[in-house]
Design brief:
Elements: H1 2-15, E1 27-28, E2 31-32, H2 41-46, H3 50-58, H4 69-72, H5 87-100, H6 141-149, H7 152-162, H8 170-178, H9 210-218, E3 226-228, H10 237-249, E4 255-257, H11 265-277, E5 283-285, H12 293-306, E6 311-313, H13 324-335, E7 342-344, H14 350-376
Parallel strand pairs: 3-4, 4-5, 5-6, 6-7
Antiparallel strand pairs: 1-2
């Protein structure tokens, strides 16, 4: 019991001992930083001269994002302005300085024919650079005789059929597939040359007279089924307004093409009003104009009134990107139209493209089924 009590007493006294940890003071360049904790920074700055303060202000971090770029640079130009900038004289001065400044002397002047450093020597070859290993293929006598007696054109055709594209060029491959005969002068080492472009005559300008067509539309001419003002320049807004007013009462015109004629939103609204009242128009093309996305929405919305238009095209406008909001609005309008069959619009989002394509396909199927049912009856 005495030994046990002695061990217990030692453990009791050792558990009451406390340990203290000492941390070394922070130092910079061997100096204790705690000495500067109680210093007054304002008092130190008041003791500096203006020159010393300017030097201290220049000591900034050039990568500090909290400072504007103009304050990160320590360079200051104290020279007075000598006058307005003369670019020509400045360039002449720079060129003059460049010509007058002597070149740095070479440590070792260049001597023709002197080799400096280690000269490259080509490795020796045994003269046998070709690979001697050959692939042996066992063929029947019939196939062997056929291949041995085949001409080069027949071998090329066989390679094209087997899909060995690397053994021939494009002209040989397409000629073999289309069975047109191999081009003359092209063998295994033949080089494909560019096909000479065909020269087509320039497209003649549009000779349609806007005044005459407006009068015919206004008179409801039964022979005028297609109106084409494409690429006609300098058509006044008054003529467009007269045309759109005439469309309201017209009952024979089926195709209206106004491509690259400078239509704006104001004229597009006039056209939308005419489309709401015209019930015979089947195709409307207003591509390559200056209609905004909102104007395109107004045009598509106007198609829901009469529901007679089957094709509408309005790509390549002032704004190339319609935006998600406009595309979703156009999608909802198209899905409400049971007669539209073809739509020419550049849509960026897959959802809008898929929904519109599915709806157009349903409209086409509905018309096809009604036509088949009418024929069978």
């Amino acid at each position: 019991m005495g030994v046990t009590e002695e061990y217990y007493h030692e453990w009791k006294t050792s558990s009451k001992k406390t340990t203290t940890m000492t941390t070394a003071p922070a130092k910079l360049y061997g100096k204790n930083l705690s000495e500067y904790d109680e210093l007054d920074v304002d008092q130190l700055l008041s003791q500096l001269s203006p020159e010393e303060i300017s030097i201290l202000a220049k000591e900034v971090d050039p990568d500090d994002n909290l400072l504007p770029p103009s304050e990160r640079c320590s360079y200051e130009c104290n020279k007075e302005a000598t006058g307005p900038l003369n670019r020509k004289k400045l360039i002449e001065h720079i060129n003059k300085q460049a010509l007058e400044t002597p070149d740095l002397p070479e440590i070792k002047p260049y001597v023709p024919g002197t080799v400096r450093g280690k000269k490259w020597v080509a490795p020796e070859t045994n003269g046998n650079t070709e690979h001697e290993d050959k692939i042996a293929i066992d063929l029947d006598d019939e196939y062997g005789d056929a291949l041995n007696s085949a001409s080069q054109e027949e071998i090329i055709d066989l390679a094209a059929i087997l899909g060995f594209h690397s053994m021939m060029n494009q002209d040989q491959y397409h000629a073999s597939l289309l069975n047109k005969g191999q081009p003359v002068g092209l063998g295994w080492d033949g080089v494909t040359k560019a096909t000479q472009p065909k020269v087509y005559p320039p497209e003649p300008p549009n000779q349609t007279d806007p005044e005459e067509t407006i009068k015919r539309v206004l008179d409801d001419d039964s022979k005028l089924l297609d109106l084409n003002w494409n690429n006609i320049k300098n058509i006044s807004d008054e003529k467009f307004e007269n045309l759109f007013k005439a469309l309201v009462e017209n009952t024979h015109l089926e195709t209206l093409s106004l491509v690259n004629v400078g239509l704006t939103d104001r004229l597009a609204d006039k056209l939308a009003e005419a489309l709401e009242k015209n019930c015979t128009l089947r195709v409307c093309n207003v591509e390559t104009n200056f209609i905004s996305p909102v104007g395109i929405v107004h045009l598509v919305k106007s198609l829901l009134k009469q529901r007679s238009l089957e094709e509408f095209r309005a790509t390549n406008q002032r704004s190339q990107v319609l935006g998600n909001k406009i595309e979703m609005e156009l999608t909802k309008l198209i899905e409400q139209n049971p007669t539209i069959l073809r739509l020419g619009l550049h849509l960026e989002y897959n959802d809008a493209r898929h929904r519109i394509a599915s709806h157009l396909q349903r409209n086409i199927d509905r018309i096809r089924q009604s036509r088949v049912g009418a024929n069978s009856a």
